Amino acid sequence: MKVRCCIVGGGPAGMMLGYLLGRAGIDVVVLEKHADFFRGDTVHPSTLEVMDELGLIDGFLKLPHQRLQKMDGLFGGTPVRIADLSRLHTKYPFIAFMPQWDFLNFLREAGRRFASLEVMMSTEAIDLIRRGETIVGVRAKTPEGIIDIEADLTIACDGRHSTVRERAGLSVEEIGAPMDVLWFRAGRTPEETESVFARVEPGKMMITFDRGDYWQCAYVIAKGQYDAVKARGLSALLDDVVRMAPILRSGIAEVKSFDDVKLLTVAINRLTRWTQPGLLCIGDAAHAMSPIGGVGVNLAVQDAVATANLLAHKLQHGCPSEHELDAIRRRRAFPVKMTQRMQMVVQNNIISGALQGGDRPLKVPLVVRLITALPWLQGIPARLLALGVRPEHVHSRAAPQS
How far is the C-alpha of 94 from the C-alpha of 87, rounded, in Å? Predict the structure, then answer.
């Protein structure tokens, strides 16, 4: 099999880039190792604007989703407001929560009209094909056996545990995170409503998302403490959860064992070099983000838009040079570093202190007190969350459709 571009990974970066390159008439294949899509949930206004620019927004917003504008919390029992997206002057001033498989399936279905785009499910890249110093494709495992896919350009979008990145030998700069996250669902009845998004208590922190018929919960623990949490037992964990969020009391019975609790090992890192001849890494394969703000999905989409903007035309004529590929890093490194820096500020000044516990009551940080007291300030964190640093817009051209 020979294509102009092989994208490894069918997450937000891979599916968006596949759609954009297919739209531009580039012969492209997207490899997704799973039989279906499963990722996170948040779609921010920056991504909604991209969907609008592609003419996909009406159909997209018909998918089942919930909308979040005001981000309220309890900090040591004190109500706070972290951000208010309704203050933004943007076309879509809300965060949409939807199962990401719906988002990715929507892009796959929308891309079927492009003859140059193929999505191969249950296809896992296991190695790179080289010709001298140049990467010229991937070896992949399919249900029918091993296949080789030759490509002028291979793009790694296969996440923070990227096989392509590892096979290429690209070095990762670890920045660190003081926490891990336990993900689980609790049942929700129609009459159960609550606007509290985040809860912080001495030694504990939890986020809850209203997902319509269930609560999606993120229970934050200190880095490396999962075994200690398991040793205490499931009932002790769930007792802590219900004490922090009494609204979960009726639905917490759905968590029957630790099999219903998924561990997310939090990492913040980035590549110093995103390219080799014939290879480009973007999204989590180039920079893993903390779950703070739920911005990882949207940064991945922004990477994909920037990649199509800068490379789609060049790919018409073959593989861009490594200097041309590195234009993606030069374009996206500043937003990535600034976002990671802001995440580190939150981690070091709020989360680390809260997770240390102790007998002293938590004091709301000054900056959070100011944002809560002065509503006009709530638009600043809202803008950083919603649109990020230097959002991208679609400039790659659509090829004429026959």
Answer: 10
